[in-house]
Write a structure and sequence with these properties.
The chain has 124 residues and is mainly alpha-helical. It has one domain (5-123). It has six helices and two strands, in the order αααβαααβ. It has helices at 5-37, 44-62, 67-71, 86-95, 105-108, 112-117, and strands spanning 74-78, 119-123. A two-stranded antiparallel sheet has the order 1-2. Helix 1 (5-37) crosses helix 2 (44-62) and helix 2 packs antiparallel against helix 4. It is elongated and about 55 Å long.
Length: 124
């Protein structure tokens, strides 16, 4: 059974918080090298968006779930109800980098990354 919008919001909140914390740690670690070793400075956004992509690719390709989905007892499946392919997970992760992703919910009854990758988030 497909999860509702409340579950999706909870998943997004938990996962974004974890991505932010990981990106913040990586950003501060990198800035130590910038300050003391003269490495090239990168804006925090580069760390956040890179971490977002890696986070979703890692968790969804291996476990079909992220920590937010574990918390809400949901998982990602393909349209046929099976484990999504690496290609589908890659598309999901790339499309999440767009700011307009979530605004498709009222029109498609799902997010853009679900629609384009032909996946669903369902209850476990």
């Amino acid at each position: 059974m497909r999860v509702g919008i409340g579950t999706r919001v909870l998943n997004c909140f938990v996962d974004t918080l974890l991505v932010f914390l990981l990106a913040y740690a990586a950003f501060n670690g990198w800035n130590w090298y910038v300050r003391y070793w003269g490495y090239t400075y990168f804006n925090f956004g580069w760390f956040f968006w890179s971490m977002l992509f890696v986070y979703y690719m890692f968790f969804e390709s291996i476990f079909k779930r992220t920590p937010g989905k574990w918390l809400s007892y949901s998982k990602v499946v393909s349209a046929s109800g099976k484990k999504p392919s690496i290609g589908q997970i890659f598309i999901r992760s790339i499309i999440r980098l767009t700011i307009i992703d979530m605004f498709f919910f009222p029109f498609l009854d799902k997010t853009l990354h679900d629609h384009l990758s032909k996946t669903e988030v369902v209850e476990v």
